[in-house]
């Protein structure tokens, strides 16, 4: 995607109804030794960094659960749209873990340090309405009978971006991202 000049916006959605991304398979992770876990987490972190570094806008369409690494995936995107019924949370502390794919950096940048600490420390899950009220998602929409309301709203948002000058959008994203790191 990074090198395809025809790609102007990327929308991340799930093919599984009711789930955006449920995070890592903890049963699989439990079978890994420490070296394998370290390698797995490093690869996951690199993947999220690669998504965040895509030169075009990215939109997460959260039509269901976005837990742990699933929320970290959404946080790696530039924009997030959620169904009001979606459930989101960095729930790792409820499993004796720590968000390992950038969530501890991206969540505070998105919603502020105090709220991020509260959500991470408690492992609390929030719905789309709560996520919108704290600025975690750009838009929240009522879920439809097809279960893809967030995806439909994400497409509408993508269609608003498409007519804009591609170079200006790319440079705007780069300037914002680099500015946030200063």
Your description of this structure?
- The chain has about 180 residues and is an alpha/beta fold.
- The protein has one domain (about 10-145, about 165-180): 2-enoyl-CoA Hydratase, Chain A, domain 1 (Alpha-Beta Complex).
- Helices cover about 45% and strands about 15% of the residues.
- The protein contains eight helices and eight strands.
- Helix 2 (about 35-50) runs parallel beside helix 3 (about 70-75) and helix 3 (about 70-75) packs across helix 4 (about 105-110).
Please state how the strands of the largest beta sheet are arranged side by side. 1-3-5-8
Helix count equals 8
Major sheet: 4 strands, parallel
Radius of gyration: 16 Å
CATH architecture name: Alpha-Beta Complex
Shape: globular
Low-pLDDT parts are none
Please identify the structural class as seen in this structure.
alpha/beta
Count of β-strands? 8
Assign the CATH topology: 2-enoyl-CoA Hydratase, Chain A, domain 1
Give the helix/strand layout.
Blueprint: E1 10-12, E2 19-21, H1 26-30, H2 34-52, E3 58-62, E4 65-67, H3 69-76, E5 79-83, E6 87-89, H4 103-111, H5 113-122, E7 126-127, H6 128-133, E8 139-141, H7 149-161, H8 166-181
Parallel strand pairs: 1-3, 2-4, 3-5, 4-6, 5-8
Antiparallel strand pairs: 6-7
InterPro entries: ClpP/crotonase-like_dom_sf, Enoyl-CoA_hyd/isom_CS, Enoyl-CoA_hydra/iso
GO cellular component, one term: mitochondrion
Keywords: Lyase
Features:
182 residues, 4-stranded parallel sheet, 4-stranded mixed sheet
């Amino acid at each position: 995607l990074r090198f395809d000049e025809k790609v102007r916006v990327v929308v991340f959605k799930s093919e599984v109804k009711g789930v955006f991304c449920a995070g890592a398979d903890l049963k699989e992770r439990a079978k890994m030794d420490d070296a394998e876990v370290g390698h797995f987490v490093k690869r996951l972190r690199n993947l999220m960094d690669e998504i965040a570094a895509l030169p075009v806008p990215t939109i997460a369409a959260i039509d269901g659960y976005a837990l742990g690494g699933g929320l970290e995936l959404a946080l790696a995107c530039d924009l997030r749209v959620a169904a009001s019924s979606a459930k989101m949370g960095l729930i790792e502390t409820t499993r004796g873990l720590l968000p390992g794919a950038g969530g501890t950096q991206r969540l505070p940048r998105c919603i502020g340090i105090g709220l991020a600490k509260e959500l991470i420390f408690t492992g609390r899950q929030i719905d789309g309405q709560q996520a919108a009220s704290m600025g975690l998602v750009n838009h929240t929409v009522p879920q439809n009978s097809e279960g893809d309301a967030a995806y439909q709203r994400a497409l509408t948002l993508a269609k608003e971006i498409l007519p804009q000058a591609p170079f200006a959008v790319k440079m705007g994203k780069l300037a914002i991202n680099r500015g946030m790191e200063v």
